[in-house]
Amino acid sequence: MKPILLFLITGMFAFTVQPAYAGYEVGDVATDFNLKNVDGSMLSLKSFEDAKGYIVIFTCNHCPFSKMYEDRIIALHNTYAPKGFPVVAINPNDPEQFPEDSFEGMQQRSKDKQFTFPYLFDETQEIAKAYGAVRTPHVFLLTQSLKVSYIGAIDDNARNAADVEKKYLENSVQALMNGKDPDPNFTKAIGCSIKWRK
């Protein structure tokens, strides 16, 4: 997938900001993947034989927003994985720019926070590009047939879980469980930009 380069023009100079990848829209069918988990195993969505859907979250170790959401992501997995909607977390960041986001750093973070969900390394960044992820965290809720049903934020308050008024992701999972389409099915992901390889 080719990136669309974004430019800022200031005076006589043009600055490249970030590559933007088209990615998926709600209703598209997502690609499966086979990425390394922190336990060293290779994991795909097909690995979850009893899944009714998938909560795919692009996240990382260093981003303050990702850290603020870690406990909520653990709670989401613990609540919904037994109901057929596991969290599958993916780190797409370039560890050369942020060594904290290395695979070894992922293993340590998973251990320190006692992640109950798989935490996969998108080393080539091809999955993040295919999905169109631009932030950490960035959510893609998929049905059992991998149809994209919701894209965006986990909720409406990254800084304080106690002040959340709209649980976008949780409400979307509940909608799918009830045989309905999420509403809204798209929100703006709030977080750190993905650190693409140079």
Structure description:
- By secondary structure, this protein is of the alpha+beta class.
- The protein has one domain: Glutaredoxin.
- Helix content is 22%, strand content 25%.
- The chain has four helices and eleven strands, in the order βββββαβαβαβββαβ.
- The strands form three sheets. It has a seven-stranded mixed beta sheet, covered by helices on one side.
- β1 and β2 form a beta hairpin.
- The longest helix is centred in the middle third of the chain and has 17 residues.
- The protein is globular, with a radius of gyration of 16 Å.
- The protein starts with a strand and ends in a 5-residue tail after the last strand.
| Overall structural domain count | 1
Number of helices: 4
CATH superfamily: Glutaredoxin
Contiguous runs where pLDDT drops below 50 for at least 5 residues: 4-17
Largest sheet: 7 strands, mixed
Q: What order do the strands of the largest sheet run in, or round the barrel if closed? A: 4-3-7-6-5-9-10
The geometry reads as globular
Based on helices, strands and strand pairing, what is the structural class? alpha+beta
| CATH architectural arrangement | 3-Layer(aba) Sandwich
Amount of helix: 10-25%
